[in-house]
Amino acid sequence: MIITHVHRKLKGVSIVESSWVPATIVSLLLCAVLGCAGQSQLESAVNEYRARLNRVLGISIPAAKWDDSLTSALAYPTASALNVNIVPMNINLRDFYAIQDCELGRIVAERNTALGKTQLPSQRFIYEQKLLTVLANCAAISAEGNQKLSTQIERWLEQKQAQWPKVWAQLIQNSTEMKQGLSLASAPLNTRDGNEGVSAVNALFYLNHLRQTQHATTPSNSTELEAQLQMIGSVRLPAKI
């Protein structure tokens, strides 16, 4: 977009009047574009554009050189580097049987199934959010007949509330759709992407809002969460910018 803007500015200027443009500035712009996009068809396109500027400006613009160090410097972090360690609750067998009278027993059992242990970040987020709600409800119910159990549940609740920022970070950092949206642009930014761009911005606002939903009385809608992630993964607006 920068190069196009420069071209439009220079289009109506004669060769004599535009000779003041420093070749180094234009060269730096070309290097910046290459540094952001990689060595591909864009490199040949930039070189062609450089040749056109040489003819129009009547000056010699050095060829932009690809810096291999940018490849690793701008690479998306690996999954292991982004992994967030969320310590699970430790529940002994006696407490596990004691919580069967409220929904907490079912929620804990769900997490220990094969599917529960391999949840996607979005599924884990919904689970953790629901767990917070259930813990609060069960603590209140247990307080009426088993104060000791209620106190233990409140400790678990405090533990899970303290972990909430990590739960949200796991959703943002490790969702496949977020990786696609942040690092894999399918095409350059286009003015015709207006409606999809607005939807992608709204999806980002939605995900940012989820960071503050640890005290929600009802869990977020899993279908809506998946739809917002799909929007980010398909439009890939941040990567295009």
Summarize the helix and strand pattern as letters. HHHHHHHHHHHHH
| Chain-averaged pLDDT | 78
Count every helix, treating DSSP H or I runs of 4 or more residues as helices. Answer: 13
Shape: elongated
- The helix content is 55-70%
In total, the number of domains comes to: 2
Work out the number of β strands: 0
Largest sheet: none
Measured by DSSP, the beta-strand proportion falls in: under 5%
Distance between the termini: 10 Å
Structural category is: mainly alpha
Give Rg in angstroms.
27 Å
Which consecutive residue ranges, at least 5 long each, have pLDDT under 50?
A: 1-39
Describe it for me?
By secondary structure, the chain is mainly α. It folds into two domains: 2-73, no CATH class; 79-240, no CATH class. Helix content is 66%, strand content 0%. It has helices spanning 2-11, 23-37, 41-57, 69-73, 79-82, 93-98, 104-111, 121-142, 147-174, 176-183, 194-210, 222-235, 237-240. Helix 2 (23-37) runs antiparallel to helix 3 (41-57), helix 10 (176-183) runs parallel beside helix 12 and helix 11 packs across helix 12 (222-235).
List keywords for this structure.
single chain, 241 residues, mainly alpha, 13 helices
